[in-house]
Design brief:
With about 425 residues, the chain is α/β, with parallel strands linked by helices. Strand 5 and strand 6 form a beta hairpin.
Length: about 425
């Protein structure tokens, strides 16, 4: 007897709840990254407890391991009015400009400053038009912020100008900003977080949250993987604050999935194509890498069917009645051909993809990931990969004192 897969639009988020005591949330990183635990779920085999340093011996030697190399920026800016009132501005994404270009922008290249979509703490205390300032280092530099309106969906826009003008906005954030730790940690970032809330392979600035599955990797673990013959590829998904946004709708049909910017080099696409052509397993390091790889399938499948290139992937695209059903290799081939035709060295897009039970993975054959919050879209992604066994995995982790969330322990999920 065959059973139809669940319709992700009809899923009740309450069905993906579990009791997570506050004491099980890791508030600080371990002394050493790869000292974390690793819970292995492999098919129908019994769950197995390991240390993260065991990972190289647990992976197929011909695997392609895909990492997200985004780098977290110091996106929280805390201003203080002359009255003493604190106003926090959390930079989410640039308005009307590509992310990496906005971070490279210098103050002397524009008369209009840099405008960003932001979250504003204590917004009612900041009158529109009033300027807030922050010092930039010991050379007399100054960052100025003013409210510049709202996006159509009500997101506040903030305009920044600064001196000296030769500085980039990335340098401004480095000088004046604070690292945006997850809100559930309920603490400010300290000196240790500046290094530990970045992966050792982080390269491309733009995230406001770390791809936390990668925080366990050390140079020694990476070297051991290479020695075993495991190939590494890098993609970029700039993690947005939406990753922490709770699902407030009863059914997923009423939840708007946040968009995140992805960038994948032609070299990485060629690595992926070669692995798929050879039938080698493709494993994602983290939910962000998984979303990127699966998004590539849908972007490429549309091209393979003769549609024009679209740089935006809607959240429900895989679940449409006319969704393409092509081999993964064919979809990735279409992306490689598109880059060649356009003379591009990298593919850029925005993905809103929602992966939930009922989704069939096209590219990845396994996932390395931390333990996620109850009733979250990240937990839905895990459940889509290993089915109802997610309950056993999480119950085991709770019973065996695994640490949860961003600074917590890890799991290797091989369906």
């Amino acid at each position: 007897m065959s059973f139809a897969p669940p319709d992700p639009r009809r899923l009740r988020i309450a069905d993906f709840a579990y009791d997570l005591p506050d004491a099980r949330i890791a508030k600080h990183p371990l002394a050493t990254r790869d000292e974390s635990k690793l819970l292995v779920c492999r098919g129908a085999a019994p769950l197995a407890d390991h240390g993260f340093r065991d990972l190289p011996a647990l992976l197929p030697t011909d695997a392609l391991l895909v990492f997200n190399d985004t780098r977290v920026v110091r996106a929280r800016l805390r201003f203080q009015k002359t009255s003493g009132t604190s106003i926090e501005v959390f930079c989410l994404e640039p308005h009307g400009q590509a992310l990496e270009a906005a971070l490279r922008q210098t103050g002397d290249r524009t008369t209009d400053g840099a405008t960003w979509c932001c979250l504003i703490g204590n917004r009612k205390k900041w009158r529109d038009g009033a300027a807030l300032t922050l010092p930039l280092g010991a050379d007399g530099g100054l960052l100025t912020a003013t409210v510049a309106g709202e996006t159509p969906d009500g997101q506040p826009l903030v305009r920044f100008t600064w001196t000296p003008t030769e500085r980039t906005f990335s340098e401004v954030l480095e000088l004046a900003g604070k690292l945006p730790l997850p809100p559930y940690l309920h603490r400010e970032a300290d000196a240790a977080d500046l290094a530990r809330y970045q992966t050792v392979y982080a390269r491309h600035e733009g995230a406001v949250a770390a791809p936390t599955a990668g925080l366990h990797f050390t140079p020694a673990v990476l070297e051991a993987l290479a020695a075993r013959g495991v190939e590494a590829a890098h993609v970029t998904l700039h993690v947005g604050a939406g990753t922490f946004r709770p699902v407030k709708a009863d059914a997923m049909d009423d939840h708007a999935m946040h968009g995140e910017i992805i960038s994948v080099s032609a070299a990485a696409l060629h690595q992926l194509r070669a692995a798929l052509a050879a039938g080698r397993p493709v494993l994602a390091v983290g939910t962000t890498s998984a979303r990127t790889l699966e998004s590539l399938y849908w972007l490429g499948a549309r091209l393979a069917q003769g549609h024009a290139w679209s740089a935006v992937l809607p959240q429900w695209a895989p679940y449409a009645a006319d969704a393409p059903a092509l081999p993964a290799l064919e979809a990735i081939d279409a992306l490689v051909e598109y880059l060649d035709q356009q003379g591009l060295t990298a593919l850029a897009a925005t993905t809103h993809l929602l992966i939930a039970p009922g989704y069939r993975y096209r590219v990845i054959g396994g996932l390395i990931t931390n333990f996620h919050q109850p009733e979250s879209t990240l937990l839905l992604l895990v459940a889509a990969l290993i089915g109802e066994r997610w309950r056993e995995v999480y119950a085991h982790a709770l019973a065996h004192e695994y640490r949860f969330l961003s600074y917590g322990d890890s799991s290797l999920l091989l369906p």
